[in-house]
Design a protein that fits this description.
Radius of gyration: 13 Å
Largest sheet: 3 strands, antiparallel
Structural class: alpha+beta
Strand content: 15-25%
Distance between the termini: 38 Å
Number of strands: 3
CATH architecture: 2-Layer Sandwich
CATH class: Alpha Beta
CATH topology: Double Stranded RNA Binding Domain
Number of helices: 1
Order of helices and strands: EEEH
Shape: flat
Strand order of the largest sheet: 1-2-3
Number of domains: 1
Helix content: 25-40%
């Protein structure tokens, strides 16, 4: 099982998300829970599409850190 980082951003009245390791893999949702669920499905579809096309599935490499700025 791979673990891909997703970045979730507030976008006006909804949320958007993307996976840095999977260019073009994006999703939206009205709530954070909805965008996260939509993103999981988008990642599954994206990876299935890569495999069906005989393309390399990129390894999960991105990570995130929250830093405190004084």
């Amino acid at each position: 099982m791979s673990r891909y980082l997703i970045v979730v951003e507030k976008a006006g009245a909804n949320y958007s998300a993307y996976a840095p390791d999977l260019p073009g893999c994006v999703a939206t949702g009205v709530t954070r829970d909805e965008v996260e669920a939509n993103m999981i499905e988008a990642i599954r579809m994206h990876l299935d599409g890569l495999r069906e096309d005989g393309l390399v599935v990129p390894p999960a490499q991105a990570f995130a850190e929250i830093v405190a700025i004084a």
